[in-house]
Amino acid sequence: MADDAQVSRENIEELVLVALAVVAILFTVGTVYVLLYLTHNFYVSSYYASSVLFGVIGVDESATLISVAPEFSTNFYILIALSILDGVVKVVVIGFIIASLIDLVSSIGMLSKVAELGRARLRNHVVVCGYSTLAQRVCASLKERNKQFIVVDRDKTMVDMASEAGYQAIHEDFTRKHVLTDARIEKADAVLFLARDDYQNLLGVVTAASMKKGLKIIARSNDKGSVNRFHRAGASLCVIPEALAGLDLSESIMTKV
Amino acid sequence: MPPAKPAPLKDHVIVCAYGVVGQKVVETLVGNGIPFVVVDVDPITVKKLQEMGYNAIEGDATRSRVLREASIGAAKAIAIVMDSDAKNLFSVLAARDLNKGIYIATRANDEFLREKLLEAGADYIVMPHKSASKEIVKELFKK
Prior knowledge:
The structure holds 2 protein chains of 2 kinds. Chain A is α/β, with parallel strands linked by helices. Chain A has 11 helices and 6 strands. Chain A has a 6-stranded parallel beta sheet with strand order 3-2-1-4-5-6, sandwiched between helices. In chain A, α1 crosses α2, α1 runs antiparallel to α4 and α2 packs parallel to α4. Chain A is elongated, with a radius of gyration of 32 Å. By secondary structure, chain B is an alpha/beta fold. Chain B has a 6-stranded parallel beta sheet, sandwiched between helices. In chain B, α4 runs parallel beside α5. The longest helix of chain B has 14 residues.
């Protein structure tokens, strides 16, 4: 969290420097343009450029250049310096106001609060724990059928993949009660444990079964010897992808022999 | 004393790899009394199968020599179900070369490889995650 704040501050400082550089470039370009095409007087050009850029009170940008330009006097240098300073101060102050707002938003976790609001609307949904290859297929099918669901995975890469696919996703360990609560398991129709790790899936089943009676729990296992354990733990269905594929393949062979 | 090689088979099924998929295929074949031979690289697996009374050959199913040893020329079907899509592809190509009329059923983990397996001569392809996903969705929407 401290690292994120540090990065945020550095980003803001970079932005402010970029803003100042843009202002300097605009001032230079404005001055050069006026100098080349409107007047050959450097002082008038720079005054006009800074007036337009920084909004000096009393200057009307639509008036002709000569009518708004002051007579040259020793006060000119002070006026232009003040004008530039005024503009720079405005840019910096606005920049820091924005930076402070961003700090405030990140410190109160505004983005995560927004995500929580999104989750609060979940009802009769499916909680998909473990964004494995199998889970990705299931999520695609659920999306086709307009069934609400949320993905939970402790691997940030998988969570990012799910988010990029447009799914709601939580970056947490799905074997923890509070994580399943965050995923609104009490309002869910079903929870799926589809991670590649049988131990994680089994632990998830045990946790979910203790949280809501009658919840449909589907798990994935890699070992047929574990299926009974999943059922005893509370899973209504335990799938072994390879075993299902084997049955499917056998059926096709039986039609040919 | 090493076990005797199985007598040449005819109209049998060759099962390449005795993993979870291969085991299901063998179960079905045993249940239906269909002759078969299992090809696996693991000598312990092969020994276990032979002790159970099944025909089994130790070897790499991507090699033509091993498939010939399994009498591929006289086989009706071959189930190529190794873990690696690339090995399955290799094996499908070899099997089709050795027996133009054999029924080749295989597995794929990747949609792209599935297309390649079909081009290589496979007749039927299963994708474990696709099968499992169908079952899960069916269960979810069951009334």
